[in-house]
From TrEMBL:
This is CobG: precorrin-3B synthase. The keyword Heme applies. The lineage of its organism: Bacteria, Pseudomonadati, Pseudomonadota, Betaproteobacteria, Burkholderiales. It comes from Tepidimonas thermarum. Keywords: 4Fe-4S, Heme, Iron, Iron-sulfur, Metal-binding, Oxidoreductase. It comes from the Bacteria. GO terms for molecular function: 4 iron, 4 sulfur cluster binding; metal ion binding; oxidoreductase activity. Residues 5-65 form the Nitrite/Sulfite reductase ferredoxin-like domain. The keyword Iron applies. Gene3D superfamilies: 3.90.480.20, Sulfite Reductase Hemoprotein, domain 1 (3.30.413.10).
């Protein structure tokens, strides 16, 4: 994928996990053939930016040697599988994720839209319901519940059959007209047509875990990354501690209980204000952006109270946070402010300068605190 600062190469580690060797190798490749800061996306992928086209083939070959990309790029694009990171050795999660990824890589796999994805959320408590996915797999007392995003019911099958069942549901999505022009999402389809009764056998569990926060968890340390930015040297340092599991929360779970390196770019405390802001690449990394975003978001982070979220977007696409939030959009004439909505929403205030924006945000957050 081309960007204004060079090619972007996306890495989808199998079952959402980098071994220590893979992480060290990826860090070295970023330093050699790309921008030395990787990006952890809200779909639990890693991106290498700034790749010179003349180095692209060399980089892909090295990534294949690390088993981090597939030989067939088109098949790899279908391997959109997010994995809950808190699994242990007795958990079926990694095997189920690998089985699903294998089915998606086969020649007879359904031709799904590029962003169509799966969430393997088969831990004790679902934790990926806020993650972007079209088909969800969750633990059930009688096996695995497979259900479409946007529905409250699905079917329960043995764990050994869950991946095949997820593919059956994906084929129903296509047959039902979910992607007439090669694009489409499951939730949007279910807003147009009902889910067949045969897919509504069992309800999903009503509870779910809210977004996990940095700190010690059962399988290791969960560390946050500011805007998902991961310097290659930091990746290498974390890999000396343990294998890494990727998450859609722009956090990494570092396996094991060894001490973490003390680095300022790592968010290790749950009350860090930087966790409450999202920002896209902005200027100069994105040609569609109307202004810088990340510096502004960091400056505004102390204004955001716990439990609230601020999204600073360089344009109306809102790539960093497509869901409603307090949203600031950079424009050619200043900043637009949307008190609750996405970057594509109707602004409550337009063309604000920096000081007026700060004042409006202070009012917005203060008013919400008194409701």
């Amino acid at each position: 994928m081309a960007a204004c600062d060079g090619l972007v190469v996306r890495v989808r580690p199998r079952a959402g996990r980098l071994s220590q060797e893979q992480a060290q190798g990826l860090a070295q490749l970023a330093q050699r053939w790309a921008h030395p800061v990787l990006e952890l996306t809200n779909r639990a992928n890693l991106q290498l930016r700034g790749v010179d086209p003349t180095h692209h083939a060399h980089l892909l070959g090295a990534l294949k040697d690390l088993d981090l990309v597939d030989a067939d790029a088109e098949r790899e694009a279908l391997r959109n599988v997010q994995v809950q990171p808190f699994w242990d050795a007795a958990d079926p999660t990694p095997d189920l994720a690998l089985q699903l990824e294998g089915l998606l890589a086969r020649d007879d796999a359904p031709a799904l839209p590029a962003k169509f994805g799966f969430a393997v959320d088969t831990g004790p408590v679902p934790c990926l319901r806020e993650a972007y996915a079209d088909i969800r797999l969750e633990r059930h007392a009688d096996g695995v519940l497979v259900y479409p995003d946007g529905a409250l019911r699905g079917v329960v099958v043995p764990a050994a059959d869950a991946a095949d069942t997820a593919l059956l549901l994906a084929r129903w999505f296509l047959q039902a007209g979910g992607a007439p022009a090669g694009r489409g999402r499951m939730r949007a389809l279910l807003q147009r047509i009902p889910l067949p009764a045969s897919w509504q056998v069992a309800p999903r569990w009503q509870g779910a875990q809210s977004r996990p926060l940095p700190g010690w968890h059962q399988m290791g340390h969960l560390v946050g990354l500011v805007f998902g930015l991961l310097p290659a040297v930091t990746l290498s340092a974390l890999a000396t501690v343990g294998a890494l599991r990727l998450t859609p929360w722009r956090c990494l779970l570092v396996e094991g209980d060894a001490p973490l390196p003390q680095l300022p770019e790592l968010i290790t405390k749950a009350d860090d204000a930087r966790l409450r802001v999202d920002a896209c690449t902005g200027v100069p990394g994105c040609e569609q952006a109307a202004g810088p975003t990340r510096e502004l978001a960091l400056a505004l982070a102390p204004l955001v109270p716990p439990g609230r979220r601020l999204h600073v977007s360089g344009c109306t696409k809102g790539c960093a946070h497509p869901r409603p939030a307090v949203t600031v959009v950079a424009t050619r004439h200043g900043f637009d402010l949307i008190r609750h909505g996405t970057a594509a929403g109707v602004p409550d205030h337009t063309g604000l300068d920096h000081d007026t924006l700060v004042h409006q945000l202070q009012q917005s957050f203060s008013h919400a605190a008194h409701l």
